[in-house]
Structure prediction request, 136 residues.
Amino acid sequence: MSEIEGGCNCGAVRYRLTGDPLAVAVCHCSNCRRQSGSAFSVNVVVRDEAMRMTGDVATWEDRDTESGQPVLRQFCATCGSPIRSLSAASPKVAIVKAGTADDPGRFVPAIHVWTSSALPWVEIPAGLPQFPRNPA
Ligand SMILES: [Zn+2]
Ligand SMILES: [Zn+2]
Prediction:
């Protein structure tokens, strides 16, 4: 990846990511599940400074975290598409929802986290690293 763009359903929020992602992770935690409305979230971890975003996002401070540090879950203030999370425990990164990218197919998950709460029908590809909770 060199540069990728993405945004929400209504187009009010747009973003650009520069440089390669640090990680692409599927998160099976129940908070990601509720926010996505799906079985899990595909998260693209990038350096915070690699993300430029325009448009109004609403922010929900998620305090139900393992570290006890809040996670700011940001979504389009108009259409509600989840865009990214900012974790106080990892302040240098932004965790972007892969499904909002204009070309989401290029983000291939390399790791699965919070598999302890994965739904029973979800098949995790053999050989990929799995962590029952956050990676240590
Ligand atoms: Zn929107
Ligand atoms: Zn999660």
Q: What stands out?
A: Residues 27, 29, 31-32, 41, 114 surround zinc ion (ligand 2) (CB under 6 Å). Helices lie at 30-36. The chain has one domain: 3-118. The longest strand covers residues 41-47.
